[in-house]
Design a protein that fits this description.
The protein is of the alpha+beta class. Helices cover 39% and strands 17% of the residues. It has helices at 2-26, 36-57, 65-73, 77-82, 95-105, 109-112, 126-146, and strands at residues 155-158, 173-177, 187-193, 196-204, 210-213, 223-225, 236-246. The chain has a seven-stranded antiparallel β-sheet. Strand 3 (187-193) and strand 4 (196-204) form a beta hairpin. Helix 5 crosses helix 7.
């Protein structure tokens, strides 16, 4: 009888030990679930930090950063500007744009993506870097040569976006005559709409009406009014007539 009780006790002890092991084994840490939003935010923050470091070490003036990035990557200035912003307005480049940035600054793409601590690979993309630097120097020289020759009273603005392609590309320096704020004939004009200044083609219609449109067929939307004075109802005004421009595009 005593032997039977001892055997039963040993059996219970073994079961208790097995149960404890099972519980310990089940207490493994759970793997973090994939969260694309979190990963995207972390990637954008790291990319922005590295891009700002690269730009700070370059000779590109702060006011020309947006235009330079737009021309190097062949993306709109609005898109490249988002790469340097934070929060909901931020953005990340696509693969081709990332490649073009690497070529322009002689960088290892893995560095911009946060996969390497070394910004450059010896001997990599030297030709592409030289081409981008030369293009920027040519652009600066053209601007320096043109500014002293511009007519008195002209105001200069830089085109943002590709709405006027192929006539005027993103990053072009446009000269506007602020004295000509009425449409005497069809042509290119600077307009202000909803707080944004842009260049548009304005067609003068018989009877006083005007049609405002983009040259890029990707933006078919246009504004047509029976009288030029009716533009105020659309929160739009004419800033001046475009007298000339310097196109910053290069290939």
């Amino acid at each position: 009888m005593a032997k039977a009780k001892k055997a039963a006790t040993r059996t219970k002890a073994k079961k208790a030990a097995t149960s404890t092991k099972a519980k310990v084994g089940a207490a493994k840490p759970r793997k973090a679930r994939w969260n694309e939003r979190r990963e995207r935010q972390e990637f954008q923050a790291g990319f922005r930090e590295k891009l700002l470091e690269v730009l700070a070490a370059s000779s590109i003036p702060e006011r020309g950063v947006g235009s330079f990035l737009s021309q190097v990557t062949h993306r709109s200035k609005q898109a490249t500007t988002r790469w340097l912003q934070t929060g909901r307005a931020s953005g990340i480049p696509d693969v081709i744009a990332l490649r073009q940035l690497s070529l322009a600054f002689n960088l290892d793409p893995a560095y911009l993506m946060g996969l390497s601590r070394l910004p450059r690979r010896a001997g990599a993309w030297t030709k592409g870097n030289e081409a981008a630097s030369k293009a920027w120097e040519d652009w600066q020289r053209k601007v320096d040569e043109a500014l002293p020759r511009r007519p008195a009273g002209m105001e200069a603005l830089i085109i943002e976006g590709d709405e006027m392609e192929p006539t005027i590309g993103a990053g072009a320096l446009v000269f506007v005559n602020p004295q000509l704020t009425t449409v005497s004939s069809s042509g290119l004009y600077a307009i202000e709409s909803a707080g944004r200044i842009a260049v548009r083609m304005i067609e003068a219609r018989i009877g006083g009406g005007v049609v405002i449109r983009c040259d890029n067929p990707r933006y078919p939307k246009q504004l047509s009014v029976a009288k030029e004075a009716d533009l105020k109802r659309h929160s739009t005004r004419i800033v001046g007539r475009v007298e000339g421009w310097l196109d910053a595009r290069w290939r």
